[in-house]
Design brief:
This protein is about 50% helix and about 10% strand. By secondary structure, it is of the alpha/beta class. The longest helix has about 55 residues, at about 1-55. The radius of gyration is 33 Å and the shape is globular.
Length: about 450
């Protein structure tokens, strides 16, 4: 019904535009006919004048210059009126084009081509936080593989436009729900990604963050037990805190401040891991735990406070690139498509212990700021230091030996290639003035691969 209404509105708008163009054409044609008539009258007047010259021996003309000047003034007035009407018509056409663009943005576009799976191979997969940065990329791959996907999100940090290109697809379902409350659905696999992940977001409401990672995890583990689903818990490198061991292997227990500003997220994820393995031992739930390190890519929030988004946005706007602390702290950045491949490999594997998923290539924050500045064309930003952030880890680098051995996984996208894709995304975000459906970013490699 909605599509028919939108189609009718679009058709009506097009008819209005065509009618307006016809009106302009007829007006111009009328003016042209008027000019031709004036020209013919002038020619007749000349003939009469010639006749009187020949037959009446050069009789004087009757105020011809005065009549011609009147005609010219009339023509000029008509021309000015036509010009004003054309300008008004042009303004109306521009308004109609804008309205038409908005209507086109509301009409669903053609879905990306997906693989067909029979009922024996097609899975029903639940993705909590599926409208978020990482979750939406995971949803794309699962949909392209032909599975049925249920996205659950309360849109605290997730956005509908990250998955809107799947709205209405027979394999896709969106549920607006907060997993702190119980959820009753059927699923074969569960990817539990729901939780704010950037410091400004999880510090904004620390109690809510703890609830999401404890009560939300209990609800998802309970759902997995009830329906017999395999569940993957998205943990984090923050469980290592400010590590005393470098690089960090899965066997390292961490060095975490339990009452610091980041504790709501750090300890929340540590409890989530404990809950997962408690359900595995007591209730025989099949669990997988991924410890995700720093990730970047398109669909990141422009103002989420992470290093990549902060530096790119500042560089694109020629603002000062601010490095908090002395800039010697290190990070390892993994592109989002590599992370999604790691999550899928972990879910399909038989390995049951926690696994680090991240890129082992390490850079200081100061180096990273210079890399981004050099990669943004025409960037005139300068790099400056700011006050250090409390409990900010000084070194962060994953040991991915287990992922390489048991999952046969390692990151493939280089930092330069990943940053270029991310810079292009943020550049488009800054240049956007109108919302269109087809402006949802979807990784071209996902389309080609599947």
């Amino acid at each position: 019904m909605i599509r028919q209404s939108l189609k009718f509105r679009k058709t009506l708008t097009i008819i209005c535009i065509v009618a307006l163009l016809i009106f302009i054409f007829l007006k111009l044609k009328q003016d042209k006919v008027y000019d031709i008539q004036i020209a013919k009258e002038d020619q007749k007047s000349d003939d009469v004048q010639g006749l009187s010259y020949r037959d009446f021996n050069r009789q004087p003309k009757k105020d011809i210059p005065k009549e011609e000047s009147i005609r010219k003034m009339e023509t000029k007035i008509v021309g000015d009126d036509t010009k004003q009407e054309l300008q008004e018509a042009k303004a109306r056409i521009e308004q109609l084009e804008k309205k038409l663009a908005v209507l086109e943005g509301r009409i669903p576009q053609k879905y990306p081509e997906v693989k067909y799976l029979g009922y024996k191979h097609r899975k029903r997969i639940l993705v909590t936080g599926g409208a978020g940065f990482v979750g939406s990329h995971l949803v794309d791959v699962l949909m392209m593989r032909g599975h049925e996907v249920i996205v659950v999100d309360n849109f605290f940090t997730g956005r509908k436009r990250n998955v809107e290109h799947w709205f209405g697809h027979r394999n896709f379902e969106m549920i607006h729900h907060d997993i702190v409350n119980p959820l009753y659905v059927e699923a074969d696999e569960i990817y539990h990604l729901a939780s704010p992940a950037s410091p400004p977001h999880y510090m904004q409401n620390p109690v809510k963050t703890i609830k999401t990672n404890t009560l939300g995890t209990i609800n998802m583990l309970g759902l997995a037990r009830r329906v017999g689903a395999k569940i993957l818990i998205a943990s984090t490198s923050e469980v290592y805190g400010d590590p005393m061991v470098h690089p960090q292997p899965e066997s390292y227990w961490g060095h975490v401040n339990p009452i610091g500003p980041r504790a709501c997220y750090d300890e929340g994820k540590r409890v989530a891991e404990t809950l997962a393995y408690s359900y595995a031992k007591q209730e025989k739930v099949v669990v997988r735990v991924a410890r995700i390190f720093n990730t970047y890519g398109p669909r990141m929030h422009a103002s989420d406070g992470r290093v990549v988004s902060n530096f790119i946005m500042q560089a694109l706007q020629n603002l000062t690139i601010t490095v908090y602390g002395n800039g010697k702290q290190t990070r390892s950045f993994c592109y989002v498509s590599d992370l999604v491949d790691g999550l899928l490999a972990l879910m399909d594997s038989s390995y049951t212990l926690p696994v680090n998923i991240g890129n082992p290539v390490e850079h200081t924050i100061e180096e990273f700021a210079v890399i981004i500045k050099d990669q943004v064309p025409g960037c005139r930003s300068t790099v400056a230091t700011g006050a250090a952030v409390e409990d900010d880890p000084q070194r962060r680098r994953p040991d991915i030996a287990i992922a390489e051995k048991h999952l046969h996984w390692s990151p493939k996208i280089s930092l330069q290639e990943g940053l270029q894709r991310t810079i292009d995304y943020f550049k488009e975000e800054l240049s956007r003035t109108t919302f269109y459906n087809n402006q949802t970013y979807m990784d071209a490699n996902v389309k080609l691969l599947h």
